[in-house]
Amino acid sequence: MMDLRPPVLPKRAPSDVLTAAFNPLIRPYLLLYVAAVLALTIVGIPLALVWLLGVGQWWAKHYFDRLSCELSQTELRFRKGILFQVEKTIPLENIQDVTFIEGPVLRQFNLSILKFETAGQSQGQAHDMQLIGIVNAHAFRQQILERRRALKQRSGAAAPSEAGVATSEVQAEQLQLLRRIAERLDDIATALRKPDP
Q1: Structural domain boundaries enclosing 97
Q2: Considering the domain boundaries, does residue 142 fall inside one?
Q3: Cross-strand pairs, 191
Q4: Average pLDDT over the chain, rounded to whole?
Q5: Which residues pair with 165 in a beta bridge?
Q6: Which of 114, 160, 176, 161 is nearest to 141 (CA)?
Q7: The pTM of the whole model exceeds 0.70
Q8: Other CB atoms closer than 10 Å to residue 88's CB: what's the count?
Q9: What is the CATH number of the domain that holds 41?
Q10: In angstroms, how far is CA 147 from the centroid of its own chain?
């Protein structure tokens, strides 16, 4: 008989992974935020009522239930969304900045937003690279920045001598290539100066 159970994955050490907790006040915030956006238009007012009386409550609950964020020693992994689920894994060495955003409305719900800026990020990805409602977001932000700094120090200290040798070899190859290009350009210039018989 075939064993249909999922394979058991090795567990990481508890100190290795930091799991973020999310504030349950995300649900009423999202419910009211979308209702306010819908109510800004005359056409959206009936939709805002439908949103507030059922659909929005279901959506906010399921959105909150699917939020997750884990920080390991080398990467940040988060998941969010219902219809369009976003699951991202960001290597810590690619994180350029972690911005803490807290406005007056967010403050009323005791919420904040962490926005991640990464190397190579396009403008369209910026919206997907933010998380709302992490409990103790300042401390979580500090953990991300500290782990990124530690990772960069480990990778920078790991191979300084190898990097120096590799750099000098690459520079020698580039210099040799530039000399061959210069010789070839001289040959072309000489050929162009010669009058045709």
Answers
A1: 18-158
A2: yes
A3: none
A4: 82
A5: none
A6: 114
A7: no
A8: 17
A9: 2.30.29
A10: 15
